[in-house]
Amino acid sequence: MNKQDWKILLVDDEHEFITTLAERLELRGIAARVVFDGESALLAVAQDEPHVMVLDVLMPGIKGLEVLERVKRSNPRVQVLLLTGHGSTRDGIEGMRLGAFDYMMKPLSIDTLIEKMESAIDYAGKAANLGQ
Amino acid sequence: MRDAMFMGRLTAGATHEMQNILATIRESAGLMEDLLALGGEGFVHAERFKKGLGVLAEQVERGMNLSEQLNYCAHATEPAPAGADVNEAMRSLVGLTRRNAARRRVSLVLAQGRTGLRTGLRALEAMGLAGLALDCCLGLLAAGAQLVLAVEEQGGLAVVRLDGPSYEALRAQPDFAELEQCARTLRAGLCAGPGGQGLALSLPKPVA
Predict the structure, then answer these.
(1) What is the domain-level CATH number for residue A42?
(2) Which domain holds residue B109?
(3) With bands split at pLDDT 50, 70 and 90, how would you rate the model's confidence at A90?
(4) What mean pLDDT comes out for the span B107-116?
C-alpha cells in the first residue's frame, strides 16, 4: 500500500505536539487525522477505521490503555502504536499485552515513527491474507 | 521518607510535563527543518538557521537526559521488591551531580561496570549514600581532576567504588562523619579503596 493511501489517526491531548506531528507527516505525503482525547478517538475509529492509530497512554479522561482495549474489541484490524513517557514505559509493555503493535517513547524520531507505521500496516496486511 | 515521597510525586508529574514540552519543541524544530529543506533555496540565512536547529536538537537531547534522570529520582523512593538496580541509581546520581562537579572543575565519570547488580536499599537511599561519598571526594580534588565512580561486585554484594583522594584525607573531611553515620544506618560497608585510595561502599543485598 502506498503511503498516500494510509489512514492514520493521531491521539494526544498535547495539541501543539500532535498537530505539528500531523503537519510533518503531511509533508511526507501521509494524511493523518488528529483528535485530542480518548472519547474522540473512539468516535473517530467508529466513523472511519484507520490503519494505524498513534495513541498517547497518559491523557485526561479515558486513558490510552482503555482506548486501546476498546478499539481492539470493536475494530481488531486497527494497529495501535502507543506513545509513552518516562513514567509510563510499563504502560507500553502492558499495552503490548493488550494488543498494541508497538510503543515509542516521546520525543519521537519521525523516521522511526513512519517505519513503525509501515511495519504495522504490512503486518495487518499479512494477517488479513492469512485470515482469508 | 514521607517528604521524599511527596517530592517524588511532584517531580514525577513535572518530568512528564517537561517531556511533553521537549517533544513539542523537537517536533516544531523538525517542522522548520522540513520546511527549510523543501523551500530553503535563496534563503540567505539558511546555514545559520540550520545551525540553530541543530543546537535546538542537541539541547532537547540534553533536557531529555536530565528529565529522565530526574524522573528516576522521582520513583527512587519506592521500594523495589526485587531490589534497586545499583547501576541505574548511580547513572542518575552521576548525571545529576555532574554540574556540581563541573563547578569545581572536576569531571565526574561513571565507569562501565557490571550491570544487573541490586541492593535491598531503596534507590534513593543508595543515591544519598553515594552522594555523600561524592561530596567528600569533591571537597578534596583539585581543579582539572577526574573522579571515577564504578559499580562492581564483590563477594556477592554490589559495591560502589570512588577512585578519589586517599582514604586518610577523606576521613579528615568534615562530611565524612555524616557519611559514616549514614552507612551505619543503612547497614552498608564503608572502607578504603585499593591501595588506600578512594573509598568503597558495599550495599546490602536484596532480601530474598
Answers:
(1) 3.40.50.2300
(2) 84-203
(3) confident
(4) 88
Distance of CA A69 to the CA centre of its chain: 13
B31 burial class (0-12, 13-18, 19+ CB within 10 angstroms)? middle
Assigned domain for B208 exists: no
B-chain CB neighbours of A27 within 8 Å are 31, 34-35, 38
A 33-62 near B (Cβ less than 8 A): 58
Name the grid cell of A120.
Answer: 504495522
Write the DSSP string, B17-80: HHHHHHHHHHHHHHHHHHHHHHH-TT-TTHHHHHHHHHHHHHHHHHHHHHHHHHHHHHHTTS--
pLDDT number for residue B8: 85
Query: Cβ–Cβ of A86/B67 closer than 8 Å?
Result: yes
Looking at the fold, whether B172 and B91 belong to one and the same domain comes out as yes
B171 or A86: which leads in pLDDT: B171
pTM of structure: 0.81
Across the interface, whether the CB atoms of A14 and B20 are under 8 A apart is answered: yes
Number of domains observed in the structure of chain B: 2
- How far away is chain B from the Cα of A56, in angstroms, using its nearest Cα? 11
**Does B170 share its domain with B115?**
yes
Beta bridge partners of B109: B148
pLDDT reported for residue B9: 87
